[in-house]
Amino acid sequence: MSSTVVLVGLGNMGRKYLNKLLELNVKPTLCDLNFELKREFQNFPFYHSYRDIEGNPSTVFVAINPQFHPEVAQYFLSKGAFVLLEKPPALNYIDLARLAENFGGYPFGVSEIERYSLAVKNFKPDPHKVKAVLINRLNGGRGYINPIWDLAWHDLYLILYLFGEFEIKTVERKGDFYYRVRGEILKSIPFELNVAWNYPNVDRSWTILTSDGEIVLDFLNERRLENGKTVSLRKGKDKLYELVKDCLSGKYDTLSVQRALFILKELEKRGKNL
After folding, report:
1. CA triple 240-259-21, angle to 5 deg
2. Domains and their CATH numbers in the chain
3. Which of 32, 49, 182, 203 could share a disulfide with 136, CB 3.0–4.6 Å?
4. Where is the Gfo/Idh/MocA-like oxidoreductase N-terminal domain (predicted)?
């Protein structure tokens, strides 16, 4: 099993994937442009170029600059592998759409780690009771593009997963790395999404206002509260562990590709450099 798994990219997220693979007793083949990392990972099969990797892997995790996600995915998809792309999976709609068209049946997925959070697991809100959704995605670190593409992506796929379609109405820049996004879910439910890099007070939460009261999805502490009472709380293995396990066992939700296509199309309406 180990020799059939490939991890492309050993940056911050790539190393997190590696740790989970090792917890699952999987020793992957590694690939990174930084060849000096070969010394750090001398006990692993290591390649500088993904095109030099021999054989036909069964599962490939790709966590590199999203500019190069599509070409790496195409290479391994053509070899019959299941490919998981870290988000964002591409920098434009057409590149991801071309992959989906060329490899029918979506034998690949886009990372949606927050779907595995106990904040949303087994949770399906009644849209008829929801009055508004207030979202904070305020992180201490930073990513590749900007806070909307790198961080708000989580909340946009969750909106699609929990409710269905949405539309972004306005985007305000509140600071160097702070944005406020307003829009509508299902053409009737207003949402506000505050997203930031380099933020001193980390906050990753939703507050859903309903006719039955308030629901809080606390992604930082992996719990869900309904009217102040904790109804779901993480115990045991973490969400990335579960995501990686699903990928290895062929259970990952490939509808993540359709959600990613929707998000890319919506973001392109506003432009990449928001």
Report:
1. 20
2. 2-113+241-254 (3.40.50.720), 118-233 (3.30.360.10)
3. 203
4. 5-101
